[in-house]
Each structure stands twice: as structure tokens, then as C-alpha cells.
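Comment on this:
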Amino acid sequence: MRSLVLEGARRLAWREVPEPRRRHEREALVRPLAVATCDLDQPMIFGQTPFQFPIHLGHECVAEVVEGPEGFAPGDRVVVPFQISCGTCERCLRGLTGSCTTVRPLSMYGFGGLGGDWGGMLSDLALVPYAEAMLVRLPEGVDPAVVPSAADNIPDGWRAVAPALADLPAADVLVVAGGGARSIPLYAVDVALALGAASVTYVDTDAGRLAVAQELGARVVEGKPEPSLGTFPVTVDGTATPDGLVATLRLTDWGGRCTSIGQLEPEGRLPLFELYTRGVHLHIGRAMARPLIPAILDLAAAGRLRPQLVTSATVAWEDAPEALLEPATKLVLSRAGGELG
């Protein structure tokens, strides 16, 4: 079968690889139908991450079941979480599916050696090891090309705001973007408004993303996070820089909640005494995708989440090597091709 391989910076090619096969009844073979770019995919493609080549790309996926365990029939459409999880270990039962103890740490699709030997979803077929625990059925009427990011980036946006809004209902939310995270801050805007935030303010330097945030319902501010914005009970740092995190923390209200979507820098300085005196809660860590996917799909099916507004373009599967070299907020590679309606 074919798989799209990132062989070096900006070097993408379809390659013939061995076809996966089921080894036991918990496994499934799936055929990817729509694969979206993660916010880390293009930095990987452009050689801006520490991840080692080669990388079999693709980890945000809606697929159809080819062979599956009991409860899944051929042709069933499913979201495949990007993290490998057994569903039965102590961590999985606590919702920490990205830290499953049954598999090696950081096991996931689409990250090369960092994620283990699981391959990528930009392939003709993919093996899902704990299928009855991992796979989530796509609701009737939901276009596969609309929600492949339910496998990763939409849960990332969800966890950035949902726990804080559960503690602080109807709070005002600040989302700071402008860095490496292109789509996750926009998903955080969408989720925050769907979950009842009183308002969402979105700060970015990119005109295209600002326009999307405004269409989603946010108040948009072009530029960098400045003290003149005031403070917010719930804040999201999507800058992926230590300086951006500090700026976002300083816009977090006393006793407020700040979530950093992620950092690739090995270290950075924080205003610790200031955070201590103001009682700011900081969460930084990886998203745990699998437990969040059902609620996300339910809201998407009801029209309360609109991930299609974040998608820059939907392009044909065969055009992936060329399309992935063009900077974009969110690309969807679809076997059907065409544009989202």
C-alpha cells in the first residue's frame, strides 16, 4: 500500500510500505477518508521541530472500518484518536489516554520515531490496536471532511477552555494566538462560545485567522497581548513561546485559569512571585483526546461547533505532497476532494 512519507525538510513523497494486518480481535483495519493537518504538521514539514525523519504523516483522521472487532461493521465511519490507548489501564480509566501504560510513552500516529511504529493516517490503510476503546463513531449526517481534527486539535481547543468554564461558568475568555498554534486557538474560541462563555476576545497578528475568529463570534484584536486589554478569568496561551505565555499569564485575573496549549522551548522564565500573589492557576501539558471526542462530535452534529470555518481548504488526497508545502491554518486531505460547502 502507499503512505505519505516526510523524508526530510520539505521532502514529501508517496511510498510503498507493507500493508498492516490484524493480529487479534481487539484490532481494526481502517481506511482513512479525510485527514487534517495538525498545527505541528507544517512545522515538521518545514524542519522547524526536533522530530526525526522519516515521518509517516497524518494523525487527525476520519476513516471507515475495513475489518474490526465486535460492535464495528465494515463501512462504519469513525474518528481515530491520534494517541494510542488501551482503554483499560489505570491511567486510561482516569481519562489520561495520552499516557496509557499498556504502550510505550507518547505512542501516537504521525510523529515518526517519537510516537513509535504506528505509521501515519495519510496511508491507504491503518491499524488501530485497541479499536473497541479507541474508535468513536461519526454521527449520522456529519461530513467526514468537517471533523477529522476531532482526533487531536479540536480536543486541544476544548481542554483549553472547558475545564475552566466548568469552574467559572459564563466567564469572559481571552485567547492569545500569533505563534505556532494556528488552528487550536480558533477551536478554543468555537468551544468557549458553544459552552456558554460570556464573551471571547481573540488576539492575533494574522489577518486571516482574525477574520475566522470574528466569524466564529469573537471580539478580535490585531496585534500582541497588551496590558490595555485588561484581565480575564479564563485565558488561553496559543503563542507557543515563553514570552507569549508570560504575557497571557499577566492578562489572567486574580484566581483565574490560564491554559498553555503547548511549548517546544526546553525552558523559560515565569514571574513566579507575581503568579503566587495573584493565585493564578496555570495548566500546561498534552491534551488527552479520546475522552473528549464524543461530546465534540455531538456539538458538531447539532451545529453548535463549526470546525468547517477553521478549515482553510479541502484538497484531493492525491495532491497532498504539493498542498502540504503551502502554509495554511488547516488543510483537509479528502479522498473525495473538492471544497467544503
